[in-house]
Amino acid sequence: MRWAQRPADLGEAVGEMTAVAELALDTEGDSLHHYPERLALLQVGLPGGAVWLVDPLALDDLGALAPVFAEAGRRLLLHAGDNDLAHLKRRYAFRFASVFDTAIAARFLGGRALGLDVLLETYLEVRLPPSRQKDDWSVRPLTDAQVTYAAADVLHLFALAARLREELERAGRLAWVEEECAALAAQPAPERAVDPDAYLRVKGARELTDRQRAVLRALWERRETLARAADRPPFKVLGEDALLRLAQAAPRDAAELAAVPGLTPRAIARWGPAILDAVAAGLAVDDAEVPRLERRPRPVVPGAVSRRIEALRRWRGEAAERHSLDPGLLLPNRLIAAIGHAGPRGLEQLAGVDGVRRWRVETFGREILAAIAGA
After folding, report:
1. Which domains does the chain carry?
2. Does 303 have pLDDT greater than 90?
């Protein structure tokens, strides 16, 4: 296990990576301890057992890795790597030519428990070291236990991927997984836009009065400011349950604030004045500016579309059981709705429905069309 913390180290690492046709990748972030989250570590494994620990906190530029990941002849092994890829695409504009995700592979083999620890024990009888997922990975130096854990997440992916590929080939599903992995590699990761209505995702927000929602919105925005200033995740400043109770109670002074259930004395001592200020701001919002929920009528679904959707759901349940697949993997609800609305009459039309993969058309297309025709 070697560290890449200087440009010269990264250059040496890239030289070794470009000499092999397969790499294993994992990342560690610090979202449980800092805000906004930073990428704290990249682990890159090589087939011979070497692991490079690339330190993005020490290196200003990781651009040297871009051609390594973008090379079409090199496959990148991941486990549940959608978040890893999204972070790297968003932060460094990396492109990924070829990936193989062992969690996706296990799903297509009918797996229900998809944790890396479970798959390694199931397929290789390998036991991972104790989890360090809750650690602050931005602290340096890492402990020996952290280094061992970080390396283990990539060391065994080569043998696991090889075993899963064998099982998939035997089941006739390797092409399915390769298509899904290609879609994962190509999936864009645009910058996350600031959602002005994010506060409405707080459980119970839609049951509040309009004025209480104005208070909740002010508290949500103030929590964001406090979290950034303190470099703490927002939930460690105020949990969502506390936000809801504060919006309901709308405390106007320290005594009323202390009476709100769930607020710790430490939170009140540190952020009490800011909380009261946010509540006051929400109460002072002009009546014309308070957030009001739009009661949108449910869209009317034509009877023919409803019948197709119900037929597809019945077919999915039967086919999923027959092939020992998760129904949501075989045909997700979003695709059931899209196909139901499109009403394709042939395989070419079915393939043209956005999100329908080639493997679904080739393997299940005729059954899907028959289900629609029967409706």
Report:
1. 2-186 (3.30.420.10), 198-289 (1.10.150.80), 303-374 (1.10.150.80)
2. yes
